[in-house]
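INFO batch 0412 | record 1 of 1 | parsing
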Amino acid sequence: MRINHNIPALNAHRLLNVNNGNSAKVLERLSSGKRINKAADDAAGMAISEKMKAQVRGLRKASQNTLDGISLIQTAEGAMNEVHSMLQRMRELAVQAANGTTTDEDRKSIQDEINQLTSEVNRIANGTEFNTRKILQGNDGPNSNTTVHKMSTGTSAQILGVAFANDAAVSGLGSLTSESLSIWIDGEERVVNLNKLDGTTNNSTKDNLLEALNNAMGNLGKAIFTDGDILEIKANSIGGTSELIITGTDRILGKLFDATYVEPGPTDPAYVFSGDLTVRGEAEKDLGNAVGSFYFNKMPEIGSTLTIGKEKVEFYDSSVGPYTGSNRPINIHNKSIEDIVKEISNLGFDGVKMQVDSGVSTRLLVEANAPGFTGQAIFLEGTPEEFVTNLQIGPNQGQGFRLVIGDIRAKELGISSTTPDGNTGVKGAAFRNVIEVTDGLSEGTIEYALDLSTEARATAAITVYDNAIVKLAGIRGSLGATQNRLEYTAANLDNTTENLTAALSRIEDADMALEMSEFTKLNILTQSGVAMLAQANQRPQSILQLLGS
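INFO prediction complete | emitting tokens
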């Protein structure tokens, strides 16, 4: 029998502490309802559950984004439904005006209603918004002002209106020789040879160029000169792709530098940045200098590249890992777009001079200051005829959906023109300069409605309205199909969220019945441990009896 060390009491005390610690853990799980409350509870399970949480939250937000996209489509389609009704009414009025029993006075009244309906079409197209974004006038989206048409990857930008600066073609200082244009619209190619376009005056050169272009394109599209002698080429159908590149070495556009931005993965590079390129020079002169600018409207992706001339810049993030490539690296970690543009401008490229635009800090000005930079990445200035936006319908990068809504303004539907002698596309139909319509929103915007003043023109207008109805029906049909697709997308996202949440619950949540049973056991053991510790502490008292005897 020993007095200095009470081993049974020490053992009872140790077990009591163990039971108290286990009871505290069980109480924590019962209080939180979670099996994993800290990394020490289950390190691997915690790592897995946190990744699952990110996916679940991303899926829920993606589902909301999808529903927002459906709401946008419903808003657009509702407005288009009203426009369709007005087109049907205008066609009905054209049929009435084409009737031989209708008098000139009757046609004037019909014309008044046509003008009002045409104005209302424009008002709806220009005024319909979703979350303050105008969705039916076409010139919204990441590249609302500019786009690059020919990328070095061979991917075409999806845009309809294009133009190029052709100072040499209209300068009147020489003839157009040894050049050809290759035009792609909706996947079809047309080649225009310019070696026969000799002209002595500006107008004859321009007219000959237009004639050659329109003859080559046929029904694919048309070319016109806009204000400022800018050549504009438009496809006849919304949603088609178009490219315009120059083949040859000099004359019209001369030697240009190649500028391309490419993201890793299946990203359409046409919606990454905006840029413009103009060329200064004269005919019969080797054009070695070219100036341009590129506007970054979002942060570059890791691994994406920007090629300028013969140099390539590659973007990386130092927090992910060091740069191991062979291009000119730009670290995007903790940097703004302005910082990146400034850093690119400080890179020294042979034959290229760069600087940040003093007016727009996210625009990079590029100038080829020496001959020898050739390429097909020619910027062609234009305005998209579609509203384009990206819906993030997945929880991860690269899981976006490109939503396109066609332009339904009266001019794009072919029922009005910005010029009184505009081309209706239908023989016999015409616009009149005394028939002005306005949308009531765009100040200073005047368009000319279809002329129904005669039986012949009213008859031709029927076909114009038929074409507009078919065109709008195509846009609405595409939106309807997209809405159906997004509804399935939302349902799938909700189903995936449910299943992933169930998997997360099996890893993270506590089994309350099991934990309560464990708590009851530990509670009994704790009470028993306290009682036994008291008994163990009393055992040395028996030694006093030996000492007393």
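INFO post-check: The longest helix spans residues 43-97.
INFO record closed
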